Amino acid sequence: MARRRRSGFPLRPTLIGLAALILAGGLAWWQRRPATDTFAVGSQPFPAGEFLENFFGLRGNRYLVEGRITEQLRYGADRTRLFALSISDASLAEPCEVGLLVPSQFGSLNIQTGQAFRLLVEVDQDGLLKALEISKS
Q: For the domain that residue 55 is a member of, what is the CATH number?
């Protein structure tokens, strides 16, 4: 006796198609999720106006700074570099320039005039901003 052809619902192709659809949806959600930025989490923004008036109260503190390199002032023998950093602040009418000391641990980082950076800095005893973390904007 011959077997009858099954004319029911095709279960296997439906399950494979559903799994592919769920996988594609999950991948699309993963790519569109908001980026988590862990750079300098919990740091205060740099008070440029207060720094220009009197930096003594800011010494030893860490701040998040966004600025643009205006010129390289010095290059040390130990690969320490000193830059002029232009910072725009809402409390100031025009951008202010401060000294940025980049330690030798960032010696391999290519820093050029005109580039914008986000930095975690510490105000040292002389009023220079010492970079602790650097990220290009």
A: 2.40.50.140
